[in-house]
Amino acid sequence: MVVRRILSLVGFLFVLIVTISACGEITPEITATELPSSTISPTSTMTPPPPSPTPIPLAATVNGEEITLQEFEAELSRYLSAQGEDNNLEEAEMVEIVLDDMVNQILLAQGAENLGFELEPEVLNVRRDVLVETLGGEMEFENWLLENGYTQQSFDKVLVSAIKGAWMRDRILEDVPISAEQVHARQILLYNSDQADQVLSELNSGREFATLLAAYEPVTQGELGWFPKGYLPHPAIEEAAFDLQPGEFSQVIETSVGFHIIQVMERESDRPLSPEARLVWQERALQDWVAMQREESNVVILIPHESE
Question: Structural domain boundaries of the chain?
């Protein structure tokens, strides 16, 4: 089209020159070089701008770090597979469990990075080699990746995050004390409020705690053992126990289990924690750390979430 337009213009100029010359007017010679440069510009091809990349669907972001929808769906599928036929959770509950776990994992990994932890490539290679050997070879490993919804890239990402998260978790658990103030207590547990009031009345009248234990707790003798604060599942029992001195007993304490009357036999200001008590403390320390990180972090959930 541009070439045709140029040829038409040249033809028009030629006719104009002949007409003016026939009228006897003096016309300067016009050559192609005297035409305005814009009229004979070479043809040009416009290159369209590259298309904008399509945004990757996200399930959440954690301090700017993305959890893609594909990663979330793959993790949810792995969770469902692990639950098997005994799973009786609602879909919304499973979504919340998996998404919260992925967010917490990233928070732990970020915590490790903030403390200066650096993952050496050799460590990653060793972990991968151990898994390959455990599964029986590279082919079996590749089949395992496929069966579990991983690509090599997505698996490496999860493995790196898991190693960093485990390092941070261990730092949190190591900070849990190995000893604490503890009490040694026992209880009479009843399932009727009137009966509990009757037992308390007998205790107040001078009946021995051990005598009533023999009647109501003949097998276990109501033994609660040594425990620190934050160990028992019922805080009201702990609160009452730590308000007592050895030999003293509590008022009736109502919980979801029943009606309790506690007696403290011993207490120490600094006693080594039992393995079970320290494990409970470690679990709570980890939960508290994650909860604090979630409060202080920018966590954006982009899919329906049970806690919304």
Answer: 69-175, 181-272
70 and 57 Cβ atoms separated by less than 8 Å: yes
- Sheet with 259-272, strands from edge to edge, namely 223-228, 179-190, 259-272, 253-254
SS3 135: helix
What's the pLDDT tens digit per position in 148-204?
999 999 999 999 999 999 999 999 999 999 999 999 999 999 999 999 999 999 999
Dump pLDDT digits (tens) for 32-47: 444 444 444 455 456 6
CA distance 247 to 164: 49
For domain 69-175, give the fold. Answer: Triger factor/SurA peptide-binding fold (1.10.4030)
CA distances from 91 to 96, 170, 306 (A): 9, 32, 10
pLDDT tens digits along 78-131: 999 888 777 788 888 999 999 999 999 999 999 999 999 999 988 889 999 999
Q: What is the CATH number assigned to the segment(s) 181-272? A: 3.10.50.40
CA gap 158, 151 in Å, rounded: 11
